[in-house]
# Entry
Amino acid sequence: MNEIEKLEKKIGYVYKNKNYAKTAITHSSFANEVRGECNERMEFLGDAVLSIITSEYLFKNFKNKAEGDLSKLRASLVCEKALCTYAGQIGLGECLLLGKGEQHSGGRERPSILADAFEAVIASIYLDSGIKQAEKFVMPFIIKEIERPAVTHFKDYKTMLQEIVQQNSGERLEYVLVEEKGPDHDKHFVYEVHLNTNVIGKGGGRSKREAEQQAAHEALKLLGY
# Structure
């Protein structure tokens, strides 16, 4: 059984266009070796598709929650940790096409790789069959995660910071990548968060999401929260 067949069996979906599936499970380390297309662009699209599916579900099913609470809940459902959990539930790591270095360094269990691949799979289903089929795939994971009590305690520092800044009209937040180092299998990112032109926080992590969250956390402490 090849990787695409493994993926189809694990997600319970058969692709009309197998190329979407192949791209979704192709990590940049493998693409660099064979000069092919990796899943980074699909990850970008999958992130947006996941956000709209999750947002619509929360909007319809949590009518008593305010916008800020909905934002925090959504963030807890689509963060890297949650996405990695979803990927683990279906054994997505077993399907991934990784470069030799990434395979030998534990890439199949790396949270950032699994989270990105899960988003890419969402995009691949969306491109192959549309939003309804993507929703059918995503929602069981979302509902199961919502039912976990710990979800309500997730701290989304980026959303918290955004809500504070929005209290003053005209203020603008921006996250800026200032450093990226290390090989593909062991990246480290450093982000600054800017309020207008001022640096108010800086954070690092093994994924861009983690680094941005750490930068926002530092900014909140600077602002006294």
Observations:
- The first strand starts at residue 173 and ends at 181.
- The two ends are 53 Å apart (CA to CA).
